[in-house]
Specification:
The protein is an alpha+beta fold. 25% of the residues lie in helices and 30% in strands. β9 and β10 form a beta hairpin.
Length: 188
Amino acid sequence: VMQLSPDSPASKAGLKMMDIIRKIDGKVMKNTNDVQKHVLAQEVGKTIVVEVLRNGKPVDLKVNLEQMPETFGLSARDAEKLPGARGNEVGTAGSLGIRVQKLTPELARGMGLENKEGLAVSAVRENSPADKGGLKAGDAIVQVNGQEVLDEKALEKALKDGEAKKSSVLLVNRAGTPMFLVIAHVEK
């Protein structure tokens, strides 16, 4: 552990700088990517057991997973520029329960992604069509309905094209793993 955000689940659980994460829920973690993939695959609200090596001794810590804030890793000025920074969801993406932000190289690195193109999912509203379709905060949306999405305008256009079919197919990247998700559109 090289850096901890104050008020993060890791900080609350007692992780400290220079702890070495060895296992999560009994599964050996070989590198940072393993840690990110394991945590991203878990449900918000779940408690995981993290075994760390601290000063040469193993220590088990219980970490309660929380929704990653959409402003995670952003400066206050950049957080204010986020779509829906004041809590409103707009457009087709908003009606599906999706909030996104431009995927920057820094954000991609923090998400464990090599590809720096697409949109980072900053929040998914609970029980929304996006949530039911499996989309998670921290995913990177690369394509929607076969169209590349490099900005919000392209995302809105691609989602609108899916309204006629009553669903949209998203190609997302989750911690370096590409996957397809189908999101049903809301009946109007």
